[in-house]
Amino acid sequence: MNRITIDCVSARNKVSGLYQVCMNLGNALLQQADPAREAFTFFVHKKLPDLFGPNQRYIIQKETHRFFQGALQDCDVWHSTIQDAKIKPRNRRIKVVLTIHDLNFLIQRKDEPFKIKKYLGRVQANINRADHIVCISEFTRQTVLQNLKTYGKPVDLIYNGSTIKEFPGYDTPVYRPFRPFIFGLGALVPKKNFHVLPCLLQHNEYELVVAGTRHEEYVAQIMKEAALYGVADRVHLTGEISEKDKYWYYKNCTAFAFPSLAEGFGLPLIEAMYFGKPAFIAANTSLPEIGGDLAYSFNHFDPQYMQSVFEKGMLHYEQTKPMQVIRERALRFSWDQAAIDYLSIYRHLNKH
């Protein structure tokens, strides 16, 4: 029996991307595993002590686990599901899989070399302990190989999946646009770059709806840009939304916009493509890899250029009607396939 512990401590905020990753991967692993071969334990935050239901085995994180790891030793494979996981087993008998989502701090902290060195050191320490490394995009994989020492260890690519909860009868979103609208999803922080979007509302009647955790300083920057273009009355920042609201906005938006400057994967992009929507993205980090030639890219953020890309992209979408092809690309990103790939790694490690 291969005893596997999955570190899900980072999945403590239900609106975070890491929560979605841990929940979906964990559920897929439970579905795809062979009960005669694998037994899972989930290392979880105290806020979510039964993350996968009452019938699973859990270890609830304690501060003392940094020093006393007796309860953490009862496994053959430990999966650290985030690159800067604070707890990793000291017992070298236990094989460690490390998933690296991104090294976004290289972009976000580019003017702070001491912080970059500090953050790289944290990830390097986890790589040093790992036996097998997984990256969630080829962009992330190449970034890791260029900036960290992997010592010949396997560095594999396993894409995240996408699971869309559908609510066909739902029709009461937190805000209902009065006009056709562009939708964006993500925390309202500078790296998401949402402040470049209000210019897209000039010379048309679209609304812009952006959903995600509000950080008021950046909210003010977005609304300042909206006022500059005279479109503040058509920009709506909803804050965090429910799964039902997310479904409604994806289903009913005219277009999706995701101009993020730093992504390791880009889950909202896949979610929008699942609904066959035209997606407008920043042409950097992982987004072109995930969207492929079915997404429309901003190579830079000059307002007139962005308006041109948007107008031409919408015209192309209306003329070619690629909804089904876009949806098919989204369906390629499967949590079941990710689980199968991780299970292959767990099984291989337990043989050695």
TrEMBL record:
Residues 180-293 form the Glycosyl transferase family domain. The lineage of its organism: Bacteria, Pseudomonadati, Bacteroidota, Chitinophagia, Chitinophagales. Residues 86-161 form the Glycosyltransferase subfamily 4-like N-terminal domain. InterPro entries: Glyco_trans_1 (IPR001296), Glyco_trans_4-like_N (IPR028098). Keywords: Transferase. SUPFAM superfamilies: UDP-Glycosyltransferase/glycogen phosphorylase. This is Glycosyl transferase group 1. The keyword Transferase applies. The keyword Cytoplasm does not apply. It comes from the Bacteria.
